[in-house]
């Protein structure tokens, strides 16, 4: 069952960038890609305990700030060593300039 | 012995470079035999946590296995742990092993790494001084870091400072002694080193710079580190992190060229076309820095070179050209360096909310970047600087100094102009 949570305003994220969102003991990374496509994944790199919001978004790839593990943002797929476990992804919708993510 | 149809690829050294090479060979669909030889008994593991999480974790630490515990399983990689190679017979293309018959190879990768430089000082013995390279070393150190003990760290380099920060977190009283005028010597710009020193001192670590050591004396409990100015630092435990020496003995005995490391070309091949070298043990020419010969002791370099050399062994002709990148964690903040700051003839400072972010230019071209602070203020821009360095760009210094101008826009404008 869908459980939409208001994460942030659209304008709080620059294009091709990412911010951190914490909710109910969980941490997420919320992304704004080109053409105002928004995405959300689990917040921490699957390789080591580092938050992806500190990493660099290039195109649709997020790179872990510490070890350069790479993930495809829309699918969460791990794209390169040392990361080998995929990120969890969450549905996103935009309403009235706000970014909602579905934790259901 | 029966002659083998294909002796395959043998890798000496099961650290980051050797293990990544083995995994990459399989990713690239190399179907021949792969033998990965390591002197330690664990599965191949990541070394960066040894000075950090392995010291501070509440639970008894386990090695962080490269690629996960199952990485080698199912890849048909013959991992031989606890095996010492005694020699390379290049004419016969065999390795001598301490136990067992000679091991043939068709191609050989030397990923032998480096070992800690040891103190040559009266009283410095295997009993009185700890070093840190292996997981076993890390456990030995961890066993010493009881709450309240006095730890003296000899050497204010990356390892020494990381150990100091970890020991402080464990409740130890920590003194770092650096013989050179300042900590973090050659590789780190003075401004950044000063910030790191200030940070450590504020956290409660004593740092002594520019004072030589004369001896280590046993005490009823622990020992004393004697300084050239007459001081004696009483210690329950002493660890030295004073640099590393590349493991070149096998290569040297086999007649391969040594030049502060095993000399390789841009593809990471030695003078013997069947033998390659990668990681901490090799000295390679870097095309981004005018062919300057580098030997890097860094996790990511080992990983990148391991991946690159696998391609070279499969016939790729590309030169290894990845810009050096390095990080070190200290008390929750991170030091990151891209490129080679010491190549620069001019430094441009960008003030990121009170944190200096340094760009190092050589004749206008960006050759390095460095910063120390919270990872959220450091990592993205260091990564972008690395890409600018890789691209050979000469950004406008005024733009570099202006924190309102995004580095990404400099990269994009360069791409757009190209």
TrEMBL record, chain A:
Family matches, as Gene3D superfamilies: Rieske [2Fe-2S] iron-sulphur domain
Rieske domain sequence ranges: 5-101
Essential cofactor(s): [2Fe-2S] cluster
Protein name: Rieske 2Fe-2S domain-containing protein
NCBIfam families: MocE_fam_FeS
UniProt KW Metal-binding keyword: yes
GO molecular function: 2 iron, 2 sulfur cluster binding; metal ion binding
Pfam families with a match to the protein in the record: Rieske
Superkingdom of the source species: Bacteria
InterPro entries per record: MocE_2FeS (IPR012747), Rieske_2Fe-2S (IPR017941), Rieske_2Fe-2S_sf (IPR036922)
Family per similarity comment: Belongs to the bacterial ring-hydroxylating dioxygenase ferredoxin component family.
Entry keywords, A to Z: 2Fe-2S, Iron, Iron-sulfur, Metal-binding
From TrEMBL, chain B:
Residue ranges the record marks as coiled coil: none
Keywords: FAD, Flavoprotein, Oxidoreductase
Keyword Transmembrane helix assigned: no
Gene3D superfamilies xref list: 3.30.390.30, FAD/NAD(P)-binding domain
Cofactor(s) in the UniProt record: FAD
Keyword Flavoprotein annotated: yes
Domain (Reductase C-terminal): residue spans on this chain: 325-411
SUPFAM superfamilies: FAD/NAD(P)-binding domain, FAD/NAD-linked reductases, dimerisation (C-terminal) domain
Lineage top rank: taxon: Bacteria
GO molecular function: oxidoreductase activity, acting on NAD(P)H
GO cellular component term of the entry, any: cytoplasm
Pfam families: Pyr_redox_2, Reductase_C
Domain FAD/NAD(P)-binding as annotated: residue spans: 9-306
Full protein name: FAD-dependent oxidoreductase
